[in-house]
Every structure is written in structure tokens, then in C-alpha cells.
Design a protein that fits this description.
The complex is a heterodimer. By secondary structure, chain A is of the alpha+beta class. Helices cover 29% and strands 31% of the residues of chain A. Chain A has one domain: GHMP Kinase, N-terminal domain (Ribosomal Protein S5, domain 2), CATH 3.30.230.70. In chain A, β8 and β9 form a beta hairpin. In chain A, α1 packs across α2 and α2 packs parallel to α4. The longest helix of chain A has 35 residues. Chain B is α+β, with helices and mostly antiparallel strands. In chain B, α2 crosses α3. In chain B, strands 1, 2, 3, 4, 5 and 6 form a six-stranded mixed sheet that branches. In chain B, strands 10-9-11-12 form a four-stranded antiparallel sheet, with helices on both faces. Chain B has a two-stranded antiparallel sheet with strand order 7-8. Chains A and B meet through α1, β9 and α4 of A and α2, β12 and α5 of B.
């Protein structure tokens, strides 16, 4: 196995890229947020609870959550054809499942809460950035939530377990990529995917690294929410 | 049969079909089920039945991998297999199923994509793996992976004339499959972990984790379901996957 002694970016193996989080970036939406990690930028907008169409999808017992993940055509070096892709359909699904455990939609029968995620600049970790942004946007929209969700990718590059892979690391021969989402207080897993080749021991080490990373992201998310209400008071 | 009854049984480590929590239903894999396909297989797990056909064609390589062929996996959840499936283009569930199968094969490098190169930068083999569930009584994922592996394992390249495939005529050259990375899907209900859920059990589970494994190495994972899992759950599921991988693999001849 190729050795990877020093990260291309010079980061430590347990060091994430610089993170920025902001809410209230799309005024028209009921809630919105931006989440940047390094060069990856995700924007999320929440609309709802609102009436669900088509009507046959309505559930009289609870509101439903609907997520849509999309990458802008210009977000990657080689233009991505606009519109839905199979990858996007799958990420939309796992994003929804990553957020569902924390939202409380029982009090909104027949309604839908729509979450739209747009990646405007991509350098790996887009689904995780999208989930962290979406959790913030849901909280900003005032959707009842038991907890926040934070997400980060961990993995194995060469012989090293590390956090927050960038594109160079993702493209490294035989790298393993593991997107993970974790709840803020109970540290439970709501997203877990894996591509690559890894042993059980390494995987457990990686998930523990993700827990530490998500704890840091959680604090940044909380601060973004608090800052938003501070600035509203000042207006 | 109501959900509370299914749940109460599981709490006592029992199941509606009298299996143990870590016990698969009977698995049967049969190959060469459709003669126009380059490779084909049927996998039954209990009443669940999935057909997979492998077709091959010549195509152009991606610009970032000029000397590699590729696999293209699709799944069609036809209404023939379940009252819950509807006509129309592949939805989220079908797309997820196809992508889980794709990643297990691709990430384990069971197929050497470089060997699918015909002429660098110009011509490669595209291996289409098409999944058709015929009866959904749960665990379509594991059944689709087994059927796909079996179909690939008996696939033969078609004849080529003037750089084009002669459809319906096959060579004796087999597609090389270097390993059989099986996928095991676990369900979590309360604090119980189950394998091979039937459709009734699937409708009551909290969360699901699919693990693609070969020789104790993990090549792909996918969490599903509406609720959380813990790190301890993941550890238990991986241990079970490693314990049972050979049993699944042995169904493919």
C-alpha cells in the first residue's frame, strides 16, 4: 500500500479544513444557511411546513421531509450537465435519512418541509457540507428539532486514517471515503456510507475521528445560529 | 399480521417465519436464465426473487480513465414485484439499489477495468448489469448483489466484427471476476440486530446498514432507514458480516 506521510495540504491527519457557517442567506426562504469547508461551499434553503403536492403523498399522521441535493454546473472543473443525476438522487435520499431522526414533524399532518441544497463550489465532501448546511437551515426555519446534525467525511488515504478528504486525497490510489453524520448530543449516527477498502479496526478509528470532527462542527453551527439572533436584535 | 406482533416477537429473539435473528432464508442462485444475455442469473432468498442480466457493448472511455472499461448498473422496480412499486422512471429506491450494487463490485476491484480496454482512448467494453426484481419479499439488496455476481461470473464476451458487437453471438472468452464481494444487509429494531429482513420486517425497522465485504475487508457501506444507529451497532454488524460472508458466497457456484 502506498504510504502517505504528509498531507498534500499540509494539514494534520485529524485536522479539518477551515469552516464557515452562516444562516439567513436567502431571505425568501423560511430558513437558509451556508456551510463552507475549505473550498467546498453548500447552500441550503428550507420551505415549509407547507401543503404537500401531489396530494396522494400526503400523510395525515405526520408532515414529511423532502430533500433535494444538486451540484451547480460550474461547481466542478469540468462542467457538470445541469439537472438531476443518479448520484444526486441517491445523495438526496441519504441526506433526507440523515436529517429525519432529529426533525419533529408530527404536528404538521399532510404537510411537507422541503430542503433544497445547492453546491456552488466543490472540492470533496459536498454531501456532508450539504447536510451540515441543511441542519442549520432547518433550525433557522424554526422547524422543531430534537438536536442538530453535523457531517464530515473521514477515510483512509495510503496507510493513514484521516478526516475531511479533499479532492487530491479522494483521487489518491485506493483511497477510502466514508461520509458520516452524527447528532449533536447523543452522538448517534444518521449517515454512514463507504467506498473503498478498509478493515473493521480502521473503520472504527475513522468513525471515532468523525465524532470528534462533528463535535467541532456542531459548535460552529450553534454559533452561527446564535449570531443570527444577535444581529436580528441589533437591527 | 400487525407490526406490534412482529416487534414483540423480535424482542424475544423470534421472527415471524421462525428464523433466528442472524439466520438467512434459503438462498438459491441459478445462472443462464436468459439466452440472449451475455450473462444472467436468478437469486432467490426465501420468496424474494431477483433476475439480473449482463449485456456488453463497445463504447468510448471517460476522459479521466482512457484505458479503463466500466460497469453500468441499473435497477428497475417494476410493479410486477410489489404492490408498492409503480410504473415510471427509476425513483430513489431503485437508484439507491443500483448504486449499492455498483459500489460493491467497483470498489472491491472484482473486475479489472483495465482489462476491459480495447484501444486506449478510443474503445472500451461497457458492462451493463441490469437488475429486475420479480418478487419483493424483502432484502432486495443482498439478492441483487448475489444475482449480479453470479451473472457476471458466467458472462461471455460477444463476438466483434468491424469494431462492432455482433449481437446474439458469443465468444468463449469469459469475463474475469477476481473475487465475489457479497453484501449483507442488517436491520436494527430497538436493540436487536437482524439479517435478511422479509418485507414485513422491513416495514417496522428503525435503521438499516448494508455492508459489502470480501475476505474481512469492507468495500462499501450504506445506511438506510429513518432512525439512528450507534458505533456499537456498526461494530456488531461488521462482525456478523465477516462471520457470514462465506455462507452467502457459497450460494454462487
Amino acid at each position: 500500500m502506498a504510504s502517505y506521510d504528509k498531507r498534500f495540504s499540509g494539514r494534520k491527519f485529524d485536522e479539518m479544513r477551515e469552516i464557515e457557517a452562516k444562516v439567513n442567506i436567502i431571505k425568501r426562504a423560511d430558513g437558509s444557511a451556508l456551510f463552507r469547508i475549505g473550498e467546498t461551499i453548500a447552500i441550503a434553503a428550507v420551505y415549509g411546513p407547507r401543503e404537500l403536492h401531489p396530494r396522494f403523498l400526503q400523510n395525515p399522521e405526520t408532515g414529511i421531509l423532502r430533500c433535494n441535493y444538486d451540484m451547480a454546473s460550474f461547481s466542478v472543473p469540468e462542467r457538470k450537465k445541469p439537472g438531476p443525476t443518479r448520484r444526486g438522487v441517491e445523495i438526496s435520499l441519504v441526506t433526507e435519512k440523515a436529517l429525519l431522526p432529529v426533525v419533529e414533524l408530527k404536528q404538521f399532518p399532510n404537510a411537507v418541509v422541503d430542503v433544497f441544497i445547492q453546491i456552488i463550489q466543490a472540492n470533496s465532501g459536498t454531501r456532508c457540507a450539504g447536510i451540515s448546511a441543511a441542519a442549520l437551515a432547518l433550525a433557522h426555519a424554526g422547524i422543531p428539532m430534537k438536536d442538530l446534525v453535523s457531517a464530515v467525511s473521514v477515510g483512509k488515504v495510503g496507510n493513514k486514517i484521516l478526516i475531511d478528504l479533499d479532492k487530491d486525497e479522494e483521487d489518491f490510489d485506493d483511497s477510502t471515503d466514508i461520509p458520516v453524520a452524527i447528532t449533536g448530543r447523543k452522538k448517534e449516527i444518521t449517515l454512514l456510507q463507504l467506498d473503498g477498502n478498509i478493515t473493521k479496526k480502521e473503520l472504527i478509528e475513522a468513525i471515532k475521528l468523525a465524532k470528534d470532527g462533528c463535535e467541532k462542527i456542531n459548535k460552529i453551527q450553534q454559533k452561527a445560529l446564535k449570531d443570527a439572533y444577535k444581529s436580528e436584535e441589533n437591527e | 399480521m400487525n407490526n406490534e406482533y412482529i416487534l414483540s416477537l423480535i424482542q424475544q429473539d423470534k421472527r415471524v417465519d421462525e428464523r433466528k435473528l442472524d439466520q438467512y432464508r434459503e438462498i438459491k442462485v441459478e445462472t443462464k436464465i436468459s439466452k440472449n444475455a451475455e450473462g444472467s442469473a436468478r437469486c432467490k432468498i426465501g420468496d424474494t426473487e431477483v433476475l439480473v442480466g449482463v449485456k456488453m457493448d463497445i463504447g468510448e472511455p471517460y476522459t479521466d480513465s482512457p484505458d479503463e472499461g466500466t460497469i453500468i448498473v441499473t435497477a428497475e422496480l417494476s410493479p410486477i414485484a410489489s404492490p408498492l412499486f409503480e410504473l415510471g422512471p427509476p425513483g430513489q429506491q431503485a437508484t439507491e439499489l443500483a448504486r449499492i450494487v455498483d459500489r460493491g463490485i467497483r470498489e472491491s476491484k472484482a473486475i479489472d477495468f483495465k482489462k476491459l480496454c480495447i484501444k486506449e482512448g478510443e474503445k472500451i467494453w461497457m458492462i451493463f448489469i441490469d437488475i429486475y426484481p420479480l418478487n419483493d419479499d424483502g432484502n432486495l439488496i443482498d439478492a441483487s448483489v448475489l444475482a449480479s455476481l453470479a451473472a457476471l461470473k458466467n458472462a461471455k464476451f460477444p463476438k466483434i466484427k468491424d469494431d462492432k458487437v455482433v449481437f446474439g453471438e458469443f465468444t468463449d472468452k469469459k469475463l474475469e471476476l477476481t473475487k465475489l464481494p457479497v453484501t449483507l444487509t442488517f436491520g436494527k429494531i430497538n436493540d436487536k440486530i437482524l439479517v435478511d429482513l422479509n418485507s414485513k420486517e422491513e416495514s417496522v425497522i428503525d435503521a438499516r446498514l448494508s455492508i459489502s465485504v470480501y475476505d474481512e475487508n469492507i468495500h462499501a457501506m450504506q445506511k438506510g432507514g429513518d432512525k439512528v444507529i450507534t458505533l456499537e451497532d456498526v461494530e456488531k454488524m461488521i462482525d456478523l458480516a465477516i462471520k457470514k460472508e462465506k455462507e452467502l458466497r457459497s450460494s454462487i457456484k
